[in-house]
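Subject: complex prediction, re-run

Hi both,

The earlier run crashed halfway through, so I resubmitted it with identical inputs.
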Amino acid sequence: MKVLGIESTAHTFGIGVVDGKGKILADERNIYQPKEGIVPIEAADFHRENSSKILEKIEKKINLEEIDLIGISTGPGLPPCLNYGLKFSRKLAERLKKPLIGINHCQAHIEIGKFLTKAKDPIILYVSGGNTQIIYNNRGYKILGETQDIGIGNAIDKLGRAAGIKFPAGPEIEKIAKQGKFVLLPYSVKGMDLNFSGILTEAMRKIEKGEKKEDVLHSFQEVCFSMLAEVCERALAAIEKNELILVGGVAQNKRLQQMLKIMCKDRKVKLTVVPKKFAGDNGTMIALTALINWKEEKRIEPKANPNWRIDSI
Ligand code: ATP
Ligand code: FE2
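This time it finished cleanly. Structure:
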């Protein structure tokens, strides 16, 4: 069996192909890089301009006639991007005469993380642009805690913009933060939930006031990542699991990994991190999740669902 997955919920147009055991056979993607924040219509235009090029690259490696199933990420995401992705995938499914199923983007980040790290029954910290959630599996995905305002990745990118760093700002902020020293910023954990917008406002105010960029960026990482470590620790204690996996674009951050590692070592918990190449958005995670759902006979109708929550799958 060969499964093709298409990702086009936001900034990335990606296609990936896996075989019936989940082995990755091909992965191609292009990422839209806006000057300011993402403009949804512009992002959809980017997908339109890049989709054929990406598919051509895939066709150099894979005979598309051998594809048995197609998955398309149908949410959560930006409506113009979701609509274009659906149009593109429907056309491909018709051409190949193969079934097309809808895939939840958040489930895909989690499933590729679990598959590549060989985790069995972990608590999951999913940290990306739009999402920040602590999740575990118990007859479906259960959210133990989450951000009550913006996702950690979006907060990082907004702070980056204020500091003159281009999108996506995470990797550059991580580098600059190494040279900074700690200045006080608010800390906001409420039970199992988190808030980032107040911290972001204060950090942006400090940058506008001319405080040292490296100090503000360093402190922002320290505070936000400590908050994440705190809620993960509480989740591990409450649900009594001995595995934690870190998935989503922000999972690439070494300082976040280091903080979680210290906490996990203390609790004798095994920490694993999704490999860098598959941390951010990609088509392979959609293909892999399509394979998993197909085997479990979960066939979701492919229609756009911009606010689709993982606990409602
Ligand atoms: P969602 O999955 O919630 O829909 P998304 O798809 O936009 O959001 P991803 O592609 O998973 O998000 O991740 C992108 C985010 O990861 C960006 O906000 C980017 O700044 C952040 N990021 C990437 N590398 C790093 C890093 N080294 N440190 C911190 N953040 C990072
Ligand atoms: Fe994502």
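The first helix runs from residue 40 to 61.

- K.
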